[in-house]
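Researcher: First entry.
Model:
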Amino acid sequence: MLGALIGDFIGSVHEFAATKTKDFSPLVHPSAQFTDDSVLTCAVAEALLASERAEAIARRFKSWGRRYPRCGWGLRFREWLWSSTLLPYGSYGNGSAMRVSPAALLARSREEALELARITAEPTHDHPEGIRGAQAAALAVHLALQGEAADAIRQQVQAFSGYDLSATVDEIRPSYRFNETCQQTVPQAIVCALRATDFEDAIRNAVSLGGDADTLAAIAGPIAEARFGIPAELARQVWDAMPDDMRDAMARLYEQAGRPLPARV
């Protein structure tokens, strides 16, 4: 979903900056760029639009990843990306959750959202924690798309995943540090989206934790998009910065889901 790409784009300049405030300016820095989060979100969108599974999704990831070789790949994924294998490597990193939002947008039920999340995680992130992270993120987006209130989303995602979502952003921020596991990024990103007052506030919450900012914002962004929508000017600004292949993947995703593309509203 576009909210993931916007979160990634805004968060990209803060990834290793340990930003510990919501009052950073400008919101969209001139040096902002798309990273691996956006590339794989688009790959997931195309894979699901083509009803791909297992090795076909792995091939899709490799095709997109090799097209963008310098966009911040994690060490293990980069090794897998340039290898000859299509087998998963047991990851529980947050990559499974950062890319999962298209599954929630296309799903017609809670069960389908969880199943599609599993399907998109397993080609690389087949560790139980990698799958749990993807499913929790997808469930939060799905419930928000159904119009559920923040408290209801929190209760249902917490009951499904076992994640503790009770803390506030202000309570998380002081001791939070950079972490790339699902266990230490997905719950925090969900909190950032559920405690937000609007889309921008969710992104600022995610960046302000001072961690893996682009991925935290890429996970929070689609939840916030489903809750609040995306401000039209911000959507168009980031849309205009997207490469043609990313725009094409997003446009076809929203068309298939029967939902208006925020950048064109």
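Researcher: Second entry.
Model:
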Amino acid sequence: MYILVFDIGSTNIKTLVLSITGPRDDEKIKLLGKEKYRGTDFYSFFYKVLDKYKIEKNDIETLVLTGTGTSFLDDTIDGINVIKVDEHLAISYGGILLSKYDEAVIVSIGTGTTIVYSNLNDYKRLGGTGLGGGTFVGLSNALINLQSDSRDIKPFEILVDYAKKGNHKNLDLLIGDISKNDILDMSTDITAANFAKLSGNYRLEDTMAATLNLVLENISLLVKALNKDLPVVYIGTLVSDTYVQERLTEIADYTGSDIHFVEDGEFAIAIGAWEYYLLKLRKNY
């Protein structure tokens, strides 16, 4: 038998494929693989997963669904039992389990950003923002099109590569550009005005770096405003890139935040839904 877990986001879908062997009182559950689909067509991805792992629908015990796209799907799919796990709960469970903290603030940067307090036994949504990976990809492509009159939409990985080669300080006006001293608790390295140095001549790489900084720094400042003392755990697709982790770490250094990244953070929401189902729900089915 198999359990398939799907995190259905507004840009990507991630899945975990688990096999179950042995009697219920001594069964073995094994993670067979993790898959990612760039798109939102659940059924297309679902059947591709079945085909890749040679899984028959009759051999699926349960489909565990989480994420924003879950609400568009029925409670049974092709006769298969469906369990829906609230996305904020899955963020909370996945982030806290992977980080191994007793309590933390979990920041999920996907297409947008959600900020959740978690202590494993309880969770609370603290806030969020429309800034996220979708902002970086969408705004970056719009800016590239303005410069090159191109309609060739570039993916996340290429845009981050551009940002790596650029310097946001060539376009962003920093507090240090207008003051010799920190202003209140804001370091001179913090941006005073995004893109305020923009002139007639600017490099594409600097534009991408400034766009990424706009997203990451403002998310970081919002997290700092909502959280004073707890460690911050970042998860999500955008955070899976090592350069993005480096930039978030640099920003945390001058905001004074205690931030952490976890292995498999891109799949943390799916992992949270999986663990919650196995530990809390499955015994009732």
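Model: Note on the second entry: The chain has a mean pLDDT of 92.
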